[in-house]
Structure formats: C-alpha cells, structure tokens
Amino acid sequence: MTKKFHLGWFTNFSVDEWNEPFAAGGGMPWNGKYYVEMAQALERACFDYMMLEDTLMLSDAYGHSTEMYMKKAIMVPKHDPAPLAALIAAATTKMGIVATLSTMAYPPFLLARLCATIDNIAEGRFGWNIVTSGEDTAAQNFGMDKLPPRELRYEMAQEYMDVVNQLFTSWDPDAVVMDRDTDTYADFTKVRPIHFEGKYFKCRGPLNTVPCPQGRPTYVQAGGSPTGRAFAAKHADSIIAVANGIEGMKAYRDDVRAKAEAIGRNPDDIKVLFLVAPMLGETDEEAREKLDTLVNSQAFIEHSLAKYGSFTDTDFSIYDLDKPLPGKLTTNGEQGSLDKFQQFGSNKTLRQLVADGGTGSSIELVGTPATVAERMGEVMEAVGGDGFLIKTPYRNNTRRYTTEITDGLVPALQQRGLMRTEYTQSHLRDTLKEF
User: Fold this and answer.
1) How far from each other are the two terminal CA atoms of the chain, in whole angstroms?
2) Nearest Cα to Cα of residue 155 among 139, 133, 136, 132
3) CA gap 177, 210 in Å, rounded
C-alpha cells in the first residue's frame, strides 16, 4: 500500500476570478479575509502548508506592454504576502503558512527579523519560500538596470543564507530567562553579534527579536536548473518542483536527494512537492470536458502565455500559435519553468504547449475525486514520494475550486490512507518530517 504523502497549496495575494459566475465577490475586498477563509478550509483538510507566491513588478513581457496584464488581471494586482501570512497565522492553529520573499529585495537582517517575527506569531508554523527573483523589471524597482546572471544570483544567495542562518542563531534558544528574582528578562551572554563580512553582504547583528520557535523558519525553494537544484538540496526543507510526467518527477526527486546526501544531509528531511492542478468533475467525462474547454479557450491561451512570459522574461506574443517554437528558448529568468513549458524537441505547436502545460501541472490529473485520488497514489508510488502542491487550473482563485479539493478530493485521499486525517505536530518542519 502506498504510504501517506504531503499536500500543499500554491496561491498568491492576487485577484480572484472576478468576472466569472463563482467569483469570491467580484474582485474581492483587499482585506485578506478571502485568503484567511481559504486557509481555514485547507487546515480543516489537513494540508501541510499554504504557500503564497510573489513577484515584485508589473510585467510588460507579453507584447512589451502592460495592457494584457492590467486588462485581464494577470499577476496584478498582487499584494505583499508577508502581512497576509501573519494574518493567516493568527487565524489558524496547525497548518503551515509559507511566504515568498526575495533575496534581491530584502537586506538579510530585515528578512531574518521579518521571518522571526512571523514565526513567533505563527508559533512555529512559518516558512520562507526562498527566491532570487527572475525579472529585470523587478530589478529595476530596486535601483538596478537588470538582474545579475542566474549563476551569480545563486552565488549571492548562498552567501545570503550564511548571513541569515547566523542571525537566526545569534540568540541561544534559552537566552530568554525571565528571572523575576534578578529582574532579568534575557541573558546578555547568550546573545551575540555575528560580525559577518563577505563578498556581497556585511552585517553586525544580532537580531533584536527573540528566537524563532523552530530555530529558523522552514525553508522552501523551487530549484529547476542544476545550480538551483544544488541550492535547494543544501538548504530546503521542502522543494516545490515542476516536471514532465512520472519519469521527469522521479528523475528530479532522485537528483536532489542524491545531491543532499552527497553533502551530508539526510534526503528524507527534504520533501519534494510537485505542482499539479487537478480538474475534478462528477464523472470522468465531465472533468475531461471541463479541462478541454478551458485550455482551448482563447482567453486561457492568452492568459497562460502572458503569465509564463512574465516569470520567464519571454515574449510569447511574437510566435505563431500554430507552429512550433523556432528553437530552444533560454532566459535569465526561470529557466526550469521555461524548459518544462516549451518541451524542446517535441515539435508541438505553441497552442499544443499551452494545452499540455498551461495549467502548470507536472502530471495530468483529471476525473472524479476517486479517479484523481487513485491516480495520485499511483504516481507517488512510482516516483517514491513526497507529495503534491496544488494550484488552480483556472486563471485565478475561486471558492468553488477550493471546495472541490477540500471537500471532494481530500476525503477521497483520506479514505485510501494517502493523506493525514489530523495534525500531530506543532511546528511546520516537524509536520513535514512526520512521514
């Protein structure tokens, strides 16, 4: 029997399907309550964590214009995930909440202080999704003309991690003594400056927050390129990945586990969650019809190409939808995501690539909750573990889709013994290590 696997949810602090019949309320109020309610539904369903994706710019990749992005609300408006993570943490008790924070945008001290603050609010359930950012337009919002090359970004990120890890340990776990007899809140001998001085960063320290309940936040990372995979194998507690089919998923997981073991980490301490977008229906035929209708619609095609163009820094508007791409495309943005989408060598037309990969799934999951649950178990058994990160197949978030997953798919998984039915751990990292 296949063992239990982990389940996460991928979303962003962005607009819902505001112009559809089952929208959250026509663009939703920006007070975060929609996402708090979503998180509470996910916690009832025993998800490991909810991950808030983020980018730091308004894209003009598609057609070198912001028109498509603004008109169709593609990755905009998008609000800062850190305050939302704190809001969700205060409204939940067991599920982890992960926020995307860029090493390009935050000085190490500021990020470490922010993470320590939210991890305390969350009582040990906060995770940091580590990104270096992949768009020149984002870099231009922070005083740069363009991003450094990808390899240099990872070199800088390695040093960045050295700084924040030292900051997280600048207070001993028992530094706060609260000794009433001596009127001593914290033992100053257990709190130290770090005096870090590297090639790219310099920081005195220590943090001026109390330690994280977890010691440090749970680290989440999406490494697609060889360098990215090595980075994830060194640092991540959970890796989010996109791969092509069972073979690609197994190869990815085996690779990062081997890299982790080679540097002395226990590979079982790293949980690889593969991005999927299940399409559910009351019958398998209904689910298939829903997916086919969605991915072949002109609105979905335009949305997908604009979205993929945004985070891969690629203008897909210049290519003929009914012809293959002219060659292997490369980028200084998210090369792994671009490689997954373009399926170089398949000779598929751009329209076919959108139909195949527009929902961002590592593997197709279409059918009734029972059919999809059975398939997810088979996939995990073939891959070896560790779980899935679910995202909506639609353009944006909908209450209806969240309910289909939490009240349809999850019970089908639980009935098969594939997913937990209760939380047993208090901290996010321990929840991930539970099985």
Assistant:
1) 14
2) 132
3) 11
Distances in whole angstroms, Cα of residue 154 to Cα of each of 103, 228, 309: 10, 7, 22
What pLDDT, on a 0 to 100 scale, did the predictor assign at position 29?
75
Q: Which tokens go with 409? A: 């798919």
- Cα 278 to chain center, whole Å? 17
Q: What percent of the chain has pLDDT over 70?
A: 98
Query: Which of 221, 239, 244 lies closest to 360, judged by CA?
Result: 244
Counting other chains too, the contacts that 337-342 makes at CB distance below 8 Å and 24 or more residues apart are 337/224, 337/242, 337/308, 337/311, 337/312, 338/308, 338/312, 338/314, 339/224, 340/224, 340/242, 340/243, 340/244, 341/308, 341/312
- DSSP assignment letter at 140: G
- Is 5 within 8 Å of 249 (Cβ atoms)? no
Mean pLDDT (the chain) is 93
Alpha helices in 7-149 (DSSP H): 33-44, 67-71, 81-91, 108-121, 136-139
320 phi and psi, to 5 degrees? -75, 125
pLDDT (tens digit, 9 = 90+) per residue, 240-277? 999 989 999 999 999 999 999 999 999 999 999 999 99
Helix ranges (H only) for 122-225 are 136-139, 150-168
18 band by pLDDT with thresholds 50, 70 and 90:
confident
pLDDT digits (tens, 9 = 90+) for 160-185: 999 999 999 999 999 999 999 999 99
